[in-house]
């Protein structure tokens, strides 16, 4: 701040004394009053390009454009916001959600912005103010001390038991319209990778046969949204980059999954190791738009068909391929694998495991352990050998808490009880 006009000589002397004292103590000097939040946002965004994933930045920009850009709040000096955090509170509390039909509703008919979106917006703004502190535009981050909306997820984890995973795989293969059956088998292999290896969809689509070992799968990459060009020529592209956590990991390769991958590679004509495990028709890596299309046109109809055919599966209608990861966690919890190992294999922290799957851990306490391989094999045998009605009944039982499952169903799915007991209940 090179100059500033004040109303009196005494005010000027007081400011001069304050600045000199701050310099002696190496404190932050009073910031320029003209540095607005919109300028801070542009500077922050520029500093993060190349350091954050393009998809992450795109989500941040969408939040800014929807709720802050072009408002009076955006043109408020950051110094004023830092000195009066109530301005931030008032802005956040006034935000309204977008109308799904794009109607311009009166303020009293507009729904309040959800807590998850508010929290995410505050976290983004906090990042901007954090950099402003580092740039010496303000002395404090006013959002750091603010109470944030609850981060409790709206979707409670509901792991798919193996018999349900196998029914989804069967439905995908039945719905696929490929004449040679290769595409149908590929759909099933994709779901197996998510459910039995715990891969994220983007990790599974970046996987090559070189990553498939004898007993493990190496996870060291994922497909991501990238950007190509500059200015008006900027466009989104799909690139292969690091995993979500930027950490490589190895996950155990279940024997049934290893068998699936071997048969699938043979069906593809035994391609080289660099070939994607889930390839496009041209043998290339999927793009993000292709995955979104698959999720909408292949996954969604398959799970919707299962949901409509069985009342106990109505929750499937709103499920996502990502939900299959919960199956990997529950499989290994039932196999008595230490939670810290499961968390490492799933690619997240132990804290996340307990926060999301604490109820599953509690429910499986005291249950006899059964290996993941055996759980999957039992489910496949039931799908192949038992009548549809019996499979539906066992699926409904498998979705219950272990303490609420019938002894017979528990024994069939996770024990040694003969599968055909229902034919002779008196025995």
Please outline the helices and strands.
Blueprint: H1 9-24, H2 37-48, H3 54-67, H4 78-83, H5 86-94, H6 115-134, H7 162-175, H8 182-196, H9 201-206, E1 216-219, E2 222-228, E3 235-241, E4 249-252, H10 255-267, H11 288-309, H12 325-334, H13 339-346, H14 350-363, H15 372-385, H16 388-398, H17 407-414
Antiparallel strand pairs: 1-4, 2-3
Helix pairs in contact: 2-6, 7-8, 7-11, 7-15, 8-10, 12-13, 13-14
Largest sheet: 2 strands, antiparallel
The class by helix and strand makeup works out as mainly alpha
- Low-confidence segments: 417-427
Secondary structure: helix percent: 40-55%
Number of structural domains: 2
Count up the helices: 17
Strand order of the largest sheet: 1-4
CATH architectural category of the largest domain: Orthogonal Bundle
As a percent range, the share of strand residues is 5-15%
Mean pLDDT: 86
CATH topology term of the largest domain: hpI Integrase, Chain A
The SSE string, one letter per element, is HHHHHHHHHEEEEHHHHHHHH
> Over the alpha carbons, how many angstroms does the gyration radius reach?
28 Å
């Amino acid at each position: 701040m090179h100059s500033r006009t004040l109303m009196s000589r005494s005010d000027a002397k007081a400011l001069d004394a304050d600045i000199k004292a701050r310099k002696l103590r190496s404190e932050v000097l009073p910031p320029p009053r003209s540095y607005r939040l919109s300028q801070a946002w542009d500077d922050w965004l520029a500093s993060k390009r190349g350091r954050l994933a393009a998809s992450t930045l795109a989500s941040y920009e969408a939040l800014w454009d929807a709720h802050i850009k072009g408002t009076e709040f955006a043109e408020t000096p950051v110094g004023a916001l830092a000195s009066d955090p109530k301005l931030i509170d008032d802005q956040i509390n006034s935000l309204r959600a977008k109308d799904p039909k794009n109607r311009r509703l009166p303020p009293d008919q507009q729904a309040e912005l959800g807590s998850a979106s508010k929290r995410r917006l505050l976290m983004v703004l906090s990042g901007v103010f954090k950099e402003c502190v580092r740039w010496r535009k303000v002395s404090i981050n006013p959002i750091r001390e603010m109470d944030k909306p609850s981060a409790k997820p709206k979707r409670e984890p509901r792991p798919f038991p193996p018999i349900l995973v196998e029914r989804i795989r069967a439905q995908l293969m039945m719905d696929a319209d490929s004449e040679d059956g290769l595409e149908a088998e590929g759909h099933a292999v994709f779901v197996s990778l998510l459910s039995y290896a715990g891969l994220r969809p983007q990790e599974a689509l970046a996987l090559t046969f070189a990553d498939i070992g004898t007993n493990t799968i190496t996870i060291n990459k994922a497909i991501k949204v990238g950007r190509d060009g500059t200015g008006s020529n900027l466009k989104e592209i799909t690139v292969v980059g690091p995993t979500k956590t930027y950490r490589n990991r190895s996950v155990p390769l279940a024997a049934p999954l290893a068998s699936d991958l071997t048969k699938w590679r043979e069906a593809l004509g035994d391609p080289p190791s660099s070939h994607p495990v889930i390839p496009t028709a041209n043998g290339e890596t999927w793009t993000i738009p292709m995955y979104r299309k698959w999720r909408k046109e292949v996954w969604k109809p398959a799970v919707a068909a299962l949901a409509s055919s069985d009342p106990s599966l109505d929750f499937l209608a709103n499920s996502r391929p990502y939900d299959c990861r919960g199956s990997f966690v529950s499989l290994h919890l039932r196999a008595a694998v230490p939670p810290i190992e499961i968390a490492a294999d799933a690619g997240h922290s132990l804290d996340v495991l307990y926060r999301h799957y604490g109820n599953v851990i509690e429910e499986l306490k005291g249950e006899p352990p059964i290996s993941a391989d055996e759980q999957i094999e039992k489910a496949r045998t039931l799908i192949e050998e038992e009548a549809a009605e019996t499979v539906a009944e066992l699926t409904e039982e498998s979705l219950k808490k272990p303490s609420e499952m019938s002894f017979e169903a528990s024994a069939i799915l996770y024990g040694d009880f003969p599968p055909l007991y229902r034919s002779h209940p008196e025995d």
